[in-house]
Design a protein that fits this description.
With about 325 residues, the protein is α/β, with parallel strands linked by helices. It folds into two domains: about 240 residues, NADP-dependent oxidoreductase domain (TIM Barrel, Alpha-Beta Barrel); about 60 residues, no CATH class. It has 14 helices and ten strands. The strands form two sheets. It has an eight-stranded parallel sheet with strand order 3-4-5-6-7-8-9-10, with helices on one face. Strands 1-2 form a two-stranded antiparallel sheet. The structure holds iron/sulfur cluster (2 copies). The site of one iron/sulfur cluster has 14 residues, from helix 11.
C-alpha cells in the first residue's frame, strides 16, 4: 500500500483509508475481522465520527493494539467550545486512546456556521485547547458546501479538509482542490464511491487519487470490499480510457438524481430539511443502513410525505434535481 503525506501534517497515510459509516451495520465481532483485514492490507488511516453511532467504539476495540502504527481520525457536530470539548473526551474513550491524530469539525454547512465556530466560546477554541493538552494532534473540517470548505482552507486555520469528491460530484476540482494544494491542506475524499452509487470501485478511486485527493476513505464492512479497494493503493495509475467511459456513464445515470447536500435548496417553506432527507434516503437505499435511516427519520417533524410539491426548491437547486418527485418516490419506498 502506497503512502502519502497528508498536507502539512506529519501523517504518512495509506492512499486508501477506511471510512467508518458502514460498520455501524455489523456486529462488534464482524467489525474486528473487517479491521484486521484492513490492517493486513496496509491501511493505516481510519476515519469515524461521533454521529456514526457505535463506529468509534468498534474502531477503538479493534485497533487499540495497533495504535502506534495507525492514524485515528474522527469528527463531531458540536459548534460550541464546551460541547466540542465533551465530544473530544467521548471520542478518546470510545477510541481507547489518549490522543486522536485528526479531529474535524463535522459537516459545517454555511458561512454563518463557519464564522460562529471562531467566535469566543466557539468550537475552534476547544480544538486549540485539546491540541495544547496533547489530546488531538491536527485540526480538520468536513462539509458539502464548496464555498465553506474554500473559506476554511483559505483561513489557514485547518490542516485538512474532507469533502465529497467522485466522478459524479467533480465540481470540487475547479477551485477547492487547487486551493488546498496551494495551502498544503490535506485532502480527504469523502464518498469516493458516491455513497454506494458507483459500481466500478477501482476506477472511481483511481480517478480521485489522480485528481488531487491525498487519501480516499471508502466505507467498508466486508472483507471482499477491502481487498478490492486496497488493491488500488498498491500501484497508483490513472483510470484507463475504458474506465473513464464507465464513470461517465455512471455520472449520466445518477447525475440528475444525485443530491450533493450543498443546502442551496433551503429553506423549504413547508419545513422539510431537504439535504437531510436526501441523506436518509441514501442511507436507506444505497448503504442499506435501514434501522439508522428510520431512527433519524423518526426524529424529523417533516418527512418525505410532507412535501407539498410547491416547486420553490426546484429553482434553487444548482443541479436541477427533481426534488418534489424524489420526495414522492422516497415516501413510497421508506414509509
Ligand atoms: S437538492 Fe440540490 S440544492 Fe438541495 S442539497 Fe441536494 S444538490 Fe443541493
Ligand atoms: S417542493 Fe417540497 S421540498 Fe421543495 S420547497 Fe416545496 S414543499 Fe419543500
Amino acid at each position: 500500500m502506497l503512502k502519502r503525506r497528508l498536507g502539512k501534517t506529519d501523517m504518512n497515510v495509506s492512499v486508501v483509508g477506511f471510512g467508518g459509516i458502514p460498520i455501524q451495520g455489523i456486529s462488534f465481532e464482524e467489525a474486528d475481522r473487517v479491521f484486521a483485514k484492513a490492517l493486513d492490507e496496509g491501511i493505516n488511516f481510519f476515519d469515524s465520527a461521533r454521529a456514526y453511532t457505535d463506529s468509534e467504539e468498534k474502531m477503538g476495540r479493534a485497533l487499540a493494539r495497533s495504535r502506534d502504527s495507525i492514524y485515528l481520525s474522527t469528527k463531531a457536530l458540536s459548534r460550541t467550545g464546551a460541547g466540542l470539548g465533551d465530544e473530544i473526551e467521548t471520542s478518546l474513550r470510545n477510541l481507547r486512546t489518549d490522543r486522536i491524530d485528526l479531529y474535524q469539525l463535522h459537516s459545517v454547512g454555511t458561512l454563518v456556521e463557519l464564522d460562529a465556530i471562531f467566535e469566543p466560546g466557539g468550537a475552534y477554541e476547544a480544538l486549540l485547547a485539546a491540541r495544547a493538552a496533547g489530546k488531538i494532534r491536527w485540526l480538520g473540517i468536513t462539509g458539502h458546501s464548496r464555498e465553506v470548505i474554500l473559506r476554511a482552507i483559505e483561513s489557514g486555520l485547518f490542516d485538512t479538509a474532507q469533502f465529497p469528491f467522485n466522478p459524479i460530484e467533480d465540481e470540487w476540482s475547479e477551485a477547492v482542490i487547487p486551493a488546498a494544494k496551494k495551502a498544503s491542506v490535506g485532502t480527504i475524499c469523502m464518498k469516493p464511491l458516491a455513497g454506494g452509487a458507483i459500481r466500478n470501485h477501482r476506477a472511481a478511486l483511481r480517478y480521485e487519487l489522480s485528481r488531487g485527493m491525498d487519501v480516499v476513505i471508502p466505507g467498508m464492512d466486508e472483507i471482499d470490499q477491502i481487498e478490492e479497494n486496497a488493491s488500488v493503493g498498491a500501484k497508483l495509475v490513472p483510470p484507463s480510457e475504458g474506465d473513464l467511459v464507465d464513470l461517465h456513464a455512471e455520472k449520466v445515470l445518477w447525475g440528475e438524481k444525485f443530491c450533493r447536500r450543498c443546502g442551496y435548496c433551503q429553506p423549504c417553506p413547508n419545513g422539510l430539511n431537504i439535504p437531510f432527507l436526501m441523506l436518509i434516503d441514501g442511507y436507506y437505499t444505497r448503504y442499506e443502513l435501514r434501522d439508522w435511516a428510520l431512527a433519524r427519520l423518526g426524529t424529523l417533524a417533516k418527512k418525505f410525505c410532507d412535501c407539498a410539491a410547491c416547486g420553490e426548491c426546484l429553482v434553487k437547486c444548482p443541479y436541477h434535481l427533481p426534488i418534489p418527485d424524489m420526495m414522492k418516490d422516497a415516501a413510497k419506498r421508506i414509509l
